[in-house]
Amino acid sequence: MSDGLEDVVAAHTVLSEVDGAAGRLVMRGHSLDELAGHTSFEEMAALMLDGFVPDLPAMKDLPAALGAARAELFETVVRKAAVPTTLGPVEMIRAMTALIPDGEDAGTVLRLLAAPAVFTAASLRLQRGLAPVAPDPALLQAADTLRMLHGKAPTLQQAAALDTYLVTVADHGLNASTFASRVVASTRAGLVSAVLAGISALKGPLHGGAPGPVIEMLDAIGTPGNARAWLEAALDRGDRLMGFGHRIYRVRDPRADALKGAIRRLGADSGRLALAEAVEQAALAILRERKPNRTLETNVEFYTALLLEALGFTPDSFTCVFALGRTTGWLAHAKEQIAGGRLIRPQSVYVGPQPRQAA
Ligand code: ACO
């Protein structure tokens, strides 16, 4: 018995390994350094799903197949669905994803890989009162996502920065959303259901919902000189500092530096990066003082916030972009779980009252 299943091993996987003591992430035999900045979304999807989806198009045909899936979803879901724009972007993409017919075949995999790209861009435009922009199936998915969002082609650097982000977050062991996806897949409910479970788990602020609040924190702090006082006051209120701490890492999350590198290569606002670095240093110092027995380091969400902001995503949509990257991992884990064939069904210890014995 372990609250939060800490230290419980619940799956064998060939997909990724998170070494929390060394700060190392391996995905399908490749270190994060080898992949981030060198791999497209499509190449990463092909790598993660290799051997799990027999009918998935080979890498040379995958960009066109994904482009066709984006075009299909735009026609069948975005043009037809009346999803209320009063929902937040994550709820909007979840509602649109729920309209995809469930299944476990290659067509469903392609639709689910394409879905968050089409639905995130469409949701954000609809919320601003703008018409959604149809996909360009000839583009790679990262470039097309930015094009559908902004209505104009991104620069090569912007598309490369988004690819770096999507690859960096593609998979990460048995995190909460991936576990949720595996549980649902184990019941044979279908891959759409498994991805919906992943999105639902991801949106919480203790998991993939943290980067939006990171922006609120940076905006509230405003200048490096305010960082220490603001952070101390937040901790005095009992708040957690978003973008810090991790269940597995006891050292710095290696994804933080992969993303910081992407921000630098993008040539994003240097003042914003300087503020973030000052806040990060202040937060780490204060967390060391206040929690000397617990190593709390920067996690992936801190620089996610800066990178996605620089690419023009609004803070409330950061989790949607995370879902776009992590869908690759959810699908691979769901397929791996299905291949193993075992229903996930742990036990609980009943600590409530027993029925009264008849006198
Ligand atoms: N700020 C302040 N204190 C913290 C933080 C933080 N960010 N993280 C942990 N702590 C404190 C806890 O309050 C706790 O203190 P206590 O022992 O005095 O009660 C102690 O450190 C240990 O915390 P746990 O809750 O055991 O850590 P856990 O492994 O359960 O939590 C988590 C990990 C949820 C990520 C946590 O660090 C947190 O809430 N961080 C902020 C939210 C965040 O950045 N989430 C994104 C995570 S990355 C991802 O999911 C993609």
TrEMBL record:
GO terms for molecular function: citrate synthase activity. SUPFAM superfamilies: Citrate synthase. It comes from the Bacteria. GO terms for cellular component: cytosol. InterPro entries: Citrate_synth-like_lrg_a-sub, Citrate_synth-like_sm_a-sub, Citrate_synthase, Citrate_synthase_AS, Citrate_synthase_bac-typ, Citrate_synthase_sf. Coiled coil: none annotated. The active site is at H246, E301. Pathway: Carbohydrate metabolism; tricarboxylic acid cycle; isocitrate from oxaloacetate: step 1/2. Pfam families: Citrate_synt. One of its GO terms (biological process) is carbohydrate metabolic process. It catalyses: oxaloacetate + acetyl-CoA + H2O = citrate + CoA + H(+). Keywords: Transferase. PANTHER family: CITRATE SYNTHASE, CITRATE SYNTHASE 2-RELATED. Belongs to the citrate synthase family. This is Citrate synthase. It comes from Bosea thiooxidans. The lineage of its organism: Bacteria, Pseudomonadati, Pseudomonadota, Alphaproteobacteria, Hyphomicrobiales.
